[in-house]
Design brief:
Helix content: 25-40%
Strand order of the largest sheet: 2-1-3-4-5-6-7
CATH architecture: Alpha-Beta Complex
CATH topology: Maf protein
Shape: globular
Strand content: 25-35%
Largest sheet: 7 strands, mixed
Number of helices: 5
Number of strands: 7
């Protein structure tokens, strides 16, 4: 029986590698949009992580014809009423980089005690195929520090302190981060759902 291919709706090789590591050995073959050079960037225009994940998965399924997985994730800070949320990647502007986004976040939280710096990383993962759509979610709680720590990871990882392990995400090795992260939790939940349905061995 041929191995089923599932496409991950990303061209980010780092994200692809991280998710392959999170999922471990599975009875399907995970490919990325890099295997489909005619597919351009998929625009995110949803108002929630769920909507954006579904938008990307639907488009990847339409283009490739393969079962499609997509995720959308971001940081929600309690003091900022859930911001930056779906705008996490462009918090400081449409072309902002990680350093600019982190700097803006620190400015908005300047002088606040740790008790008012609580935050959550959220991830939504969507699956779309010919039979329908399915969503899984993951979340991890933490605190935003007043200065960055660690040289690993990306995005807000240097500022996001995880009390469970006593480190920022940027101070963790990737395997360690995957065990506690929002993205790891969401993709593992999706993998379990897939194995319990028609994607099992």
């Amino acid at each position: 029986m041929p191995v089923l291919s599932v496409v991950l709706a990303t061209t980010n090789q780092g994200k692809y590698d991280e998710i392959v590591e999170v999922l471990g050995e599975q009875p399907w073959n995970l490919v990325s949009l890099n295997d489909f050079p005619d597919c351009g960037p998929i625009r995110e225009y949803g108002n929630s992580f769920d909507e954006n994940a579904l938008i990307k998965a639907r488009e990847a399924f339409r283009i490739t014809g393969l079962t499609a997985l997509a995720d959308d994730s971001g940081l929600a800070v309690d003091y900022l009423n859930g911001e930056p949320g779906v705008y996490s990647a462009r918090f400081a502007g449409p072309r902002a980089d990680d350093e600019q986004n982190n700097r803006k976040l620190l400015e908005l939280l300047k002088g606040l005690p740790s008790g008012k710096r609580k935050a959550r990383f959220h991830c939504s993962v969507a699956l779309v195929d010919e039979s329908g759509e399915h969503l899984c979610r993951g979340q991890v709680k933490g605190v935003i520090l007043d200065e960055p720590r660690g040289g690993n990871g990306f995005g807000y990882d240097p500022l996001f302190y995880c009390p469970v392990l006593g480190k920022t995400f940027a101070e963790m090795e990737r395997k360690e981060k995957n065990r506690v992260s929002h993205r790891g939790a969401a993709f593992l939940a999706m993998a379990i759902w897939m194995r319990n349905h028609k994607y099992g061995a």
